[in-house]
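# nightly structure sweep
# worker-07 picked up a monomer target from the shared queue
# config: single-sequence mode, recycle default, output format = structure tokens
# input follows
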Amino acid sequence: MNEGPSFGVYVHWPFCAAKCPYCDFNSHVRHRPVDQERFAAAFARELATMRQRTGPRTVSSIFLGGGTPSLMEPKTVGAILDRIAAEWTVPPDVEITLEANPSSVEAERFRGYRAAGVNRVSLGVQALNDKDLRFLGRLHTVDDALRAIRLARETFPRLSFDLIYARPGQTVEAWTAELEQAIGHAADHLSLYQLTIEEGTPFFALHKAGKLPVPDADLAADLYEATQEVTVARGLPAYEISNHAKPGAESRHNLIYWRYGEYVGAGPGAHGRFIEEGRRVVTFTEKVPETWLDLVEAKGTGVCGGEMLTREEEADEFLLMGLRLAEGIDLLRYEQLSGHALAPERVTILREEGLVTPLGNSRLRATPAGMVVLDALVADLAR
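# output follows
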């Protein structure tokens, strides 16, 4: 994985067929057909506005996230990709990822996405048993998921899929068996997330009422450890806390985030972080799709807020993102962002506690033990 300057474009399609009870993303269910032509025109307009702010750039990655982007017609995807190519330089080897749900997968639609330029699909599989899929509020079955995986492997050069573990009642043995099965179907990338109970979700209310037990800290740590052992043994080591890939198959787009690169966000609820007039700015757009649409049609963008980051804020974000990676952080870049080095005495204490380790003279990474307590570790280093 060669680190270097990179620029990505994130496009948020906010609509889903159903809202999952664990999800706190900006996703919305609509019971009438969405006017995709109108939304495609609004995406084009907001992307053009973003281009005015970033100036000319070469795009290394495009990510169509959601929501459920596989509810888009291929011509909608094609129109968005054409607009990105019209605004910025898009090289032939650009990574173009589309998130898809197995329940909304059709062979013809997949072929349409491929023809539009999509070369990587990320499937929201989430579990490989039907009982837990129902618990997670998913609309697909295991058979649907395996069919979607087969179809994706036949259609796209690259494939990733997601699984959620630390589900109620899940043992290390059951998760290990499910993970082995998943790797048997995987191409070159897996995203493996521990179930988290997010405020404002139905799962949060159930958990608060004592009706949704989750693994205690010890079992969660055992599940995480088992995840690392199985994936390493099967050639898909973690390159980031929750992401596993064969060497060379890492998600370029997500690496932009974790390496603290630049990206623009377009669409309802999308965030961006890019350098404008020498300063890193944060943008975020209106979350409600119809309100976003009205804003874009009226003034060219749905951006409803943002800020310029201070050097200290940039350095803290760089730490928080970079220490998620197996490759760790570049210490010189931290100094350049913050204006000072990490406190040597703090680094020494964390090394002695087995939470961080140097990589040569120029990098620092979290150990496996450090990854488990990463938020506290970053807070300690940034203090």
